[in-house]
Amino acid sequence: MSSTKYKLPNLPFSEKLIYINGEWVEPAGQQSAKVENPDTASIISEVPECTVEDVDRAVQAAYAAFHDGPWVNEYSGAQRRDALLMLADEIEQHRAEIELIESINTGKPISDVRGELDDTIDLFRHFAGYADKVEGRHIAAQTNAKLQGYTTKVPVGVVGFINAFNYPICLLAWKVAPALAAGCTIVFKPGPQTPLTTQYFAHLLHKTGRFPPGVFNVVLGGITAGQALVDHDLTDKIGFTGSVATGKQVIRSTASSKNVRSASVELGGKSPGVVMPDVDLDKTAELVVSGCMSNAGMNCNALTRLWVHRSIYDEFLPRLKNAAEALVLGTPQDEQTQMGPLIDERQYKRVLEYIRIGREEDKAEILTGGKPVPERGGYWIQPTLFYNVDPKARIATEEIFGPVLSVLKPFDSLDEVIEIERKNEFGLAAGIFTHSHKDIAKFTRKLRSGTIWVNNYNGLYSYLPFGGFRNSGFGRELGYESFDGYLVPKAIIDDISA
Ligand code: NAD
């Protein structure tokens, strides 16, 4: 294990500092937090826990940059576009180091992290293309020929971002690339478990020399820093990704602070998948297992409620079991590894508790898995399949955020599935596996899900919006829709006779 491919590389910035107003500065307080490698539960770094004072300093910097700085007031859209393209190039040049840091800090297989970096670079290039295409409307005078009305779209202002731990660099790009393209300024807080690639990103952004001081600022920490950012009266919008409970708290705070502000909240999911009898069972079993177990099940859109048609139920279960047992668990930095550990001890205990609930309270049967993998030392749990699960069971309705799939009791008609899924608390994603156009049309029309995959699962793209219904939150990330979310229209009424 002495190879450099398993070790955190030397970082080109000091982890003890925070990036505010174009500089690496000392935090106001003395508190720090340890950063772990979840594969082995070993400490790999220590970073500051920001205080309310640090958050205030960062927001003040973003506010000054927005109202008085060149990014918003002097740069053309084309200049912002070129800055973002240069940033994408910088990330690309340093991607191997970022991938290694991300894999060690999240425990994610290195091959998956490569896909995350592909997406990150693509996102900056994609949204760079919008920076010089901000459009308004001209509305011909309707009631008074002397008046001319038109709209311009302006950046929403200072955006406070709060991220989840599960895709640290990619979810950063989901948020930061469209917001910068729209001309906003930013204070960004990563998940407390995974600060390192956000700091690396700040280092690269600084290195381009194209982003004036205060345009992008980082604060680190957990609840204190997050709450201070949400509560700060100089922020104009909050972009949040995380659990339903924290998301609701964020919405309450943005509504009750002195100045109301808009929020986009991307929350959890309990996404159903439906297997109809006309599909290739082996191929579909593999798609279902990767749809659930990718990122050790810590995906908001993970396929966790599986409906299998009664006529193929008994044939399909052994295929699912085989696909889950074939997953390669191992050192995340090894090429062949397909599944890694949970992110931390809290998540590990939570998943084990849900496995207990599944067995003891929900009385569901285990097809495979259900146990920790103690010999690895970190937060490992086997890919776990329950079957014959009641659709109302706790393991079938609550977000577990781990490698646990509930195969529900067999169904007879798609209408029955749609009727039950109408009551799903979440509405982030869903999948259907069939070649029947009639069933595909019915499912995609009726289901209130932000994303619906047909005969595939998990792929997300810079050009397609992503977000939820109901408790999965509101607002959209990715696609033109996310860029538009960082702009607000102004109506100008001009008396042309004056
Ligand atoms: P979490 O809610 O525990 O934390 C999310 C973030 O909120 C962290 O940065 C945390 O420090 C911060 N935070 C905590 N308390 C806060 C407060 N009072 N005010 C402001 N910020 C606060 O979630 P998590 O465990 O980091 O992430 C997992 C959750 O994220 C899952 O529910 C998952 O489904 C969801 N998620 C959703 C999407 C999506 O796009 N819909 C994507 C990824 C993850």
From TrEMBL:
Key word NADP present: no
Q: Which InterPro entries match?
A: Ald_DH/histidinol_DH, Ald_DH_C, Ald_DH_CS_GLU, Ald_DH_N, Aldehyde_DH_dom
Q: Which Gene3D superfamilies does the record associate with it? A: Aldehyde Dehydrogenase, Chain A, domain 1, Aldehyde Dehydrogenase, Chain A, domain 2
A single GO molecular-function term is: oxidoreductase activity, acting on the aldehyde or oxo group of donors, NAD or NADP as acceptor
Domain called Aldehyde dehydrogenase: residue spans: 24-491
Going by the entry's taxonomy, the superkingdom of the source organism is recorded as Eukaryota
The catalytic site is made up of E266
Q: Identify one Pfam family in the record.
A: Aldedh
Q: Which PANTHER family match?
A: ALDEHYDE DEHYDROGENASE-RELATED
What does the sequence similarity comment in the record state about its family? Belongs to the aldehyde dehydrogenase family.
Protein's name in the database: Aldehyde dehydrogenase domain-containing protein
What does the organism's lineage look like at the top? Answer: Eukaryota, Fungi, Fungi incertae sedis, Zoopagomycota, Kickxellomycotina
